[in-house]
Amino acid sequence: MEFISGMEIFPLGFKEAEKAAEIYDKLEIQGQVIDDNDILIAGIMLSNGLKKIITRNIKHFEKIEEIEVINY
Prior knowledge:
- The chain has 72 residues and is mainly alpha-helical.
- The protein has a single domain, classed as 3-Layer(aba) Sandwich (Rossmann fold), CATH 3.40.50.1010.
- Strands 1-2 form a two-stranded parallel ribbon.
- The protein has helices spanning 2-5, 14-30, 36-47, 58-61, and strands at residues 52-55, 68-71.
- The chain has four helices and two strands.
């Protein structure tokens, strides 16, 4: 609880789902579809003004132009 108590949790609402659908459509047209969960994470991030992600899943998130990937 101590670890997550300082975190802000963003919900998956309509605007986030709509942004995720836009990301999915764009990736599908490019033939680069990624996991649905990653698309939802990106939709939540971008809808809330977040542009950087710390992840080991570089292969998926680097396909989304608006997101800066930070590897750890």
